[in-house]
Amino acid sequence: MIRVTIEPSAERDLDELETTVARAVRDKLAELERHPEPHRWLEKLKAHENSYRLRIRDWRAVGILEGNLFRIMRILHRRDDYRSVKHR
Questions:
Q1: How far apart are CA 26 and CA 73, in angstroms?
Q2: What is the pLDDT of residues 13-56, one digit of tens each?
Q3: 55 within 8 A of 27, measured Cβ to Cβ
Q4: CB 62, CB 74: distance < 8 Å
Q5: What pLDDT, on a 0 to 100 scale, did the predictor assign at position 86?
Q6: Report field, pTM of the whole predicted structure over 0.70
Q7: What does the buried/exposed string (b/e) look like for 8-46 if buried means 16 or more CB atoms within 10 Å of the residue's CB?
Q8: Is 39 helix (H, G, I), strand (E, B) or coil?
């Protein structure tokens, strides 16, 4: 099992999305928490250490995986460049 947290920057991204898309993102994140093998859904990004993405339709949840905690930093459209994501 994995725990998902949404950082304030990702919350702002969600607020700007259409209602149906935002609901799909939140549903997928909740499903990720319940999935018995959640790490299979995450794809490692080359730009940053411990950075992963989760596909949600045409959107991507980009975040940092720390053990069993996935911290969502941004919600981006698939056309956006992940290298612009700031990690702390």
A1: 14
A2: 999 999 999 999 999 999 999 998 988 999 998 877 789 999 99
A3: no
A4: yes
A5: 59
A6: yes
A7: eebeebbeeeeeebbeebeebbeebeeeeebeebbeebe
A8: helix
d(CA 71, CA 50): 10
- What digits encode the pLDDT tens for the residues 50-82? 899 999 989 999 999 998 999 999 999 988 766
pLDDT of residue 49: 79
CA distances from 26 to 5, 15, 51, 62, 78 (A): 11, 12, 19, 13, 17
∠ Cα 88 50 54 (to 5°): 100
Stated length of the chain: 88
| Domain covering 3-79 assigned CATH 3.30.2310.20 in the classification | yes
Type of residue at 42: L
Q: Please give the structure tokens belonging to residue 60.
A: 């991507």
